[in-house]
Each structure stands twice: as C-alpha cells, then as structure tokens.
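Re: that chain you flagged

S.,

Sorry for the slow reply, it's been a week of failed gels. I finally had a moment to sit down with the sequence you sent. For the record, here it is as I used it:
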Amino acid sequence: MSKPRKILVIALRYLGDVLLTTPLIRSLRQAYPDAQLDILLYANTVAMLEGNPDINQLICVPSKARFADNWALLRQLRRRYDLAITTQAGDRPFLYSLFAASQRIGIVPTKPNTGWWKRFFLYRWLEYDENTHTVLQHLNILALINVPPCFELVPPQTDDTQALNQLVGNSAYAVLHTHPQWTYKQWTIAGWIEIGLYLHELGLKLVLTGGTAQAEIDYVANIAKQLPEDTLNLAGRVSLAQLTHLLTNAALYIGVDTGITHLSAATNVPVIALYGPTNPVKWAPWPYCFEQNTNPFSKIGSQTVNNIHLLQGEKSCVPCHLEGCDKHQGSRSVCLDTLSPERVKATIRLILNK
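Prediction finished late last night. Pasting the structure tokens below so you have them in one place:
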C-alpha cells in the first residue's frame, strides 16, 4: 500500500471508546505527519476530541441517523480518502469505509460466516478479540500496515478554565463520578455517601461530576444533598475538556465503569475504578504511561497498575460480561451492590498514605 495522504478513522462508539482511539490517532500522526487525518464519530461524542492536536477535521453523524443523514454523509465521503480505518466490527462503520476510501483496514466479527464479506473488501483485517485490551486491539490494526505504536491517550484540551478554578478554590479535593450511562454499572448511593463523608473527614473537599442528562443531574443532586455543605456539584456544568483540567489537579478520583473513568486515567490522577460485570482485560482504564504491548489487567481480581486501582466485585460469576443480573441495561449487578465501602476506604488510605 502506498503512503496515504488522506486518512479517515471511523469511531462510532461511546465517549470512553472514542478516547481509547486516541493512541491509534497519535500513532498515525507520528507515522504520517503531513497527512490529512480526519475522524468520523457520533455528534454526541465530539467533545472527547476537543483540542486534539493530531486531528485535522472532525466529521459528525447522528447516532440515530436517518436516511437523509446517511445519504448526505456518503456523498461527502465518496472516495475522498486514500485509507479508511474502522475501529469496530459493525456494519455501519464498515459501509462508511467502503464509500470513503479505496484502501481499508479494520476489525471484523470473530465468526467468519458473519464477517466474510467484510474480509473480502478489506485490504487487511483483524478479528474482534474479547481478550485483548481495546487500546492494543486498535494499535494491532496499525501493525497490519507497519505503523509503530504510540500508547498515549490524548484527553480533550481547553484554555477555558478560569471560572472552574474559582469554583474549586485552593483546597485539596477528590472527584467522585457516581453515575454511569447504564444501571447495571452503578454502585450504591449509600456507598457513595459513606465514601464522601470519609473523604471529608480526611480533609478533602468533594467534587461531584456528571453529564447533562436530566436523570443524571437529579441522581447526582440527590447524593450531593446528603454530603457536607461545601460539596461542589458540577454535574452538567463543565465540558469534558474542563473536566480534564479538574481531574489533573485532583488528589484522587473514584468512579464506576464509564467514559469519565477512562478520561481520569489519562490525566495521571490516582484512580479508583469500581468494576462488576465488565471484563477488565478488554475495558479497564488504560494506565498512565503504560507502554507495553501486553494487557495491563487480568480478568479476575482487584489490581493496581500505575495510577489505576481497579476494585472488582467478588461474586463467583464476575466478570460475567452481561448487562446486569437480569441481563438488561436497566438491571442491577449484585457484584457491585455488595462491593464494600471498606474496600474503597482501604484503597483511599493506600493512595493518601493515611
């Protein structure tokens, strides 16, 4: 394959998944410094790439695109690029890549009978692997065309932090991100309150973060009103780039399996990540300055790698890879409901040397 002058990376996933593509993007930029490097992603995940210096253009598409949206995008993409890279095995990103470039590489489904046609149209491909971390899977795509890997996550960036600094003040603080997108990844409200009060006793100001959805704002507000009066509730009030700045200066971060936990890992803040059904081999936060072509975490057990302290539920079925005990996104996960606040407190003492 000739040296590409125009490259399109297709990343149609959630916020955390988009962040996990940034090592691939940086690797491409280092290998092809003069190339035009564009990213196709959902409109509601654009904020995760704000200020990214490796990218020329962000191309947005609605997550629930209508026929008119897809038709307009396909006309825009038609043979505009020399190389298209798909970071997932779904049909939609693959079809976009067919229109975008004459050369394509990417991920295909594990079962040949469901992905044979994608294999036929791809220049080179990798099968989706549940036992390879997402960052490594992305970098292994680039290995197909001999692009050297860069393992660095690139968080969003902004200079608009003055108002945020005034809100936080000069006190040492801990950031708590209590609300994931799906119920089956939630910890208990009682657990969050107990940990918040414990951190306050240790002399740390509490900062709560959350997204802009009203249900999430209400959830975080319910926790905030049961914590000390000086607790700062920033749910729905800061951008992801501002949140990066907030995390960079925190004493520690505690969160569940969510995109913000992946973001915190990229800032080198000490992270306590509460995991239940999710396989940490594939989806654990990528540790800061971890530059090895091996999975940083094993499948079972609480583990510490660099700035990441991963606490896993202790049920015998963990990780089950299911969406909660009732197997739907709105169900609870017993492994998280029974995760003891005492385990979190012990990890806090370890981080703070208390």
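What I noticed first: The chain has two domains: 6-143, 162-352.

Talk soon,
D.
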